[in-house]
Design a protein that fits this description.
- By secondary structure, the chain is mainly alpha-helical.
- It has a domain at 81-262: Biosynthetic peptidoglycan transglycosylase-like (Penicillin binding protein transpeptidase fold), CATH 1.10.3810.10.
- It has eleven helices and no strands.
- The longest helix has 27 residues, at 66-92.
- The protein is elongated and about 75 Å long.
Length: 278
């Protein structure tokens, strides 16, 4: 019999040896075993940004609703059409650079002085209060005194609006008021503020009292019907209306307006000897 050789002392070569290949054992393997290839490793790692089931991405989910997108398109189309229409009307309407020349020709044709005097504060306040209390705060004025509408209907009205905007952009409020009062008709044959002031009261525009300024401002809408020489009671009603508007706009108090209405007008109906309409 042969004696066994202890391990580590050069034992027999034909003894049992450790296997060179590890055979995987049956049964579940740990999820983190690098030696195991699972279904997730076949197509690369799964990240948090992967598309959800159904193929819809987050960008698709964040898109605006269809109805909102359509509404925005409609609004933009309307805005573009409006801008194009406004630009077309600005080009199609006459230039307002000739406004002073038109006023001069009008006054010469009616025997009125041009240019007329600067519009005094009292008459300006009365006119603005009764005709357009937003005159100083909003663009646009009534251009019909200088530019006769070409036809009627929405097209002519739009043209007048554009002309008013052009005047407002080209001239100061003071200049516009002066152009307006230079050509305005005040009844009884009086064209322009200077002639009306001298003709009705025998004073220049700068000398108008509050009741006189209110009465003249009230004549602009219907100068023949409200003529104080021929229709004194109607003219006084218009004066009261203008004084009420001055109270509403804060220019006068109720007590001041009441005193103005009771004050004498000194209506003469013809130019005074010392009044020069210029």
């Amino acid at each position: 019999m042969t004696r066994g050789v202890p391990a580590g002392e050069g034992g027999s070569r034909d003894g049992p040896t450790a296997p060179l290949i590890r055979v995987p054992q049956a049964g579940p393997q740990p999820a983190g075993d690098l030696g195991t290839a699972g279904p997730a490793s076949a197509g690369g790692p799964v990240t948090a940004d992967a598309a959800p089931a159904g193929g819809r991405s987050r960008a698709t989910e964040r898109r605006l609703p269809r109805w909102l997108r359509r509404a925005l398109i409609v609004v933009l189309a309307i805005a573009l059409a409006g801008a194009l229409a406004f630009a077309g009307l600005m080009l199609a309407t006459p230039s307002v650079s000739t406004a002073p020349l038109l006023a001069q020709a009008f006054d010469r044709a009616h025997g009125a002085p041009y240019p007329g005097p600067l519009v005094p504060e009292r008459f300006a306040a009365a006119l603005v209060a009764t005709e357009d209390h937003r005159f100083y705060s909003e663009p646009g004025v009534d251009p019909m005194m200088l530019y006769t509408p070409r036809g009627s209907g929405p097209g002519a009205q739009a043209e007048q609006v554009i002309l008013g905007i052009k005047l407002d952009l080209s001239y100061s409020k003071t200049q516009i008021l002066r152009l307006y009062t230079d050509v305005a008709y005040f009844g009884h044959g009086y064209f322009g503020l200077a002639r009306a002031s001298c003709g009705y009261f025998g004073v220049t525009p700068a000398g108008l009292t509050w009741p006189q300024a209110a009465l003249l401002a009230g004549l602009v809408q219907a100068p023949s019907a409200d003529n104080p020489v021929a229709h004194f009671t109607v003219a006084r009603a218009r004066e009261a209306h203008v004084l009420g508007r001055l109270v509403a706009t804060g220019t006068l108090t109720q007590a001041q307006a009441a005193r103005a209405y009771r004050a004498p007008l000194h209506l003469i109906g013809d130019p005074g000897a010392g009044c020069v309409a210029r």
